[in-house]
Design goal:
The protein is 72% helix and 4% strand. The protein contains 5 helices and 3 strands.
């Protein structure tokens, strides 16, 4: 298979008898497929060359560039005027979609906050139970300590009374 011929801007311009800058302007305006060589010059295939010849024939008939519709552009709608009402409908549809997405985003944010609040409430309840448990253990320990102190005082006071009595009755 033989490689396809690559046309240079100057060759195309000479073939259709226009200025090379005109060819460059058409390439950019119609977004034609080209390659740029190492020196920065456009190189194009036969297909692109045929498109440029078509553009040239259309301009010779008196058409302005914005009036020229390329074969592939008919599918994309380039070159056709769209009624303002159709554009308004599309804009309204986009606005509705954005509003719908905004509502979904707000709902999702509310769900996240609700989940976080519920988890925090659960943690607070667990901490309250822990505090209650610790408080009851502390109370038990205080009571136990108080009983121990009372027992120690009783033990200390008991022998002293006997000694006093013994001291009174002993000669």
């Amino acid at each position: 298979m033989m490689p396809e011929k690559m046309w240079k801007t100057r060759e195309v311009a000479k073939a259709i008898n226009v200025n090379p800058s005109t060819v460059q302007r058409w390439i950019k305006y119609f977004h034609l497929t080209t390659k740029v060589n190492a020196k920065g010059h456009f190189e194009m295939t036969d297909d692109t060359y045929d498109k440029i010849k078509f553009i040239h024939s259309e301009t010779k008939q008196g058409k302005k560039l914005k009036e020229i519709v390329m074969e592939g552009d008919r599918e994309t709608g380039r070159g056709k005027m769209v009624p303002a009402s159709a554009m308004d409908e599309k804009i309204d549809m986009l606005i509705r979609q954005v509003e719908h997405l905004d509502r979904q985003l707000n709902n999702k944010a509310d769900e996240v906050v609700e989940y976080q609040v519920l988890n925090q409430r659960k943690e607070i309840n667990e901490l309250n139970e822990l505090i209650s448990h610790l408080s009851s253990r502390l109370k038990t320990l205080e009571e136990s300590l108080q009983q121990k102190e009372n027992a120690d005082l009783t033990a200390q006071n008991g022998p002293q009374k006997k000694r006093r009595l013994a001291g009174i009755f002993s000669f």
